[in-house]
Structure to design on (313 residues):
């Protein structure tokens, strides 16, 4: 009986471990995330004050989890290195230099990926191409007109086709970008924007890309929308659009592919340590012994009956 107990306990423990390993391997077969630090930037250094630009990083997590972001630049200053789109500030002596910024994204499964972006700082006095952000106008009824211009510092524009646009938003990360328009010479351009929030300060800047791919940005400017056009908000808070945040889990918590193998392995180990398998085996052995005893008793009773009923000489 001891050998039977030992063999059964080892078999059950082996099966529990195998099931946990099988499901565990399938759970751990995750795909690496991807990182995108954005396109290389060409910033026009227009004056001796610090120049800023926004790093447009992003990542993709294919396993349904979430990502954390970490930026590192070999110079300058980051507003927050732990967000996807921090503000990068260049020192005042950054004319005609380049900065290398590295973005690393890490998933909640421990996997990571990296990508680099180069920030090229140009001296406008040397390159002659100038992008200027001008004051916003028509700021009323939750709308405004953004204004900018492109020119050359020597008044001799010969850069061919240029694409111009604006970036704007409630912070230096902007978050909104207008359609790109074509310009073939020096001049002004503007963009009407609407659906702005009342009583809110907005940042905006102009941008232009030359035919050689270089992107130049104007300085950051701000405007504030008036408070008189505020929308009516009912008591109980502002109702917004729900946002899905992936946790990597499903609604079936206990049967989730992450927890099921762990649950099976833990239950099997607990039953093995607590001796529950031995108790079950002893009960089965006693039941089988009792069954054999009953069969033997019935057989003996039949023999006695046959002996009593047999004729005697």
């Amino acid at each position: 009986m001891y050998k039977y107990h030992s063999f059964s306990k080892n078999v059950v423990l082996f099966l529990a471990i195998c099931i946990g390993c099988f499901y565990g391997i399938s759970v751990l077969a995750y795909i690496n995330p991807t990182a995108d630090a954005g396109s290389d930037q060409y910033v026009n250094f227009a004056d001796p004050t610090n120049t800023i630009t926004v790093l447009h990083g992003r990542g993709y997590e294919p396993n349904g989890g979430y990502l954390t972001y970490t930026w590192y630049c070999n110079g300058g200053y980051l507003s927050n290195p732990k967000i996807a789109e921090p503000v990068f500030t260049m020192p005042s002596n950054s004319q005609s230099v380049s900065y290398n910024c590295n973005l690393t994204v890490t998933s909640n499964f421990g996997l990571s990926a990296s990508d680099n972006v180069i920030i090229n700082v140009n001296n406008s006095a040397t390159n002659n191409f100038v992008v200027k952000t001008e004051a916003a106008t028509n700021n009323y009824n939750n709308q405004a007109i953004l204004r900018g211009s492109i020119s050359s510092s020597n008044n001799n524009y010969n850069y061919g086709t240029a694409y111009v646009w604006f970036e704007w938003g409630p912070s230096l990360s902007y978050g909104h970008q207008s359609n790109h328009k074509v310009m073939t010479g020096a001049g002004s351009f503007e963009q009407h924007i609407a659906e702005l929030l009342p009583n809110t300060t907005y940042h905006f800047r102009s941008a232009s890309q030359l035919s050689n791919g270089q992107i130049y940005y104007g300085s950051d400017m701000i405007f504030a929308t008036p408070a008189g056009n505020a929308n009516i908000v009912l008591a109980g808070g502002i109702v917004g659009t729900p946002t899905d945040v992936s946790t990597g889990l499903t609604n079936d918590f206990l049967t989730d592919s992450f927890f099921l193998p762990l649950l099976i392995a833990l239950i099997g180990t607990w039953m093995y340590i607590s001796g529950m398998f031995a108790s079950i085996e002893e009960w089965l052995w006693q039941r089988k012994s009792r069954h054999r005893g009953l069969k033997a008793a019935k057989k003996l009773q039949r023999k006695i009956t046959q002996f009593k009923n047999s004729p005697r000489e």
Residues 34-224 form a domain with the Immunoglobulin-like fold (CATH 2.60.40.10). The radius of gyration is 37 Å. The longest strand covers residues 112-123.
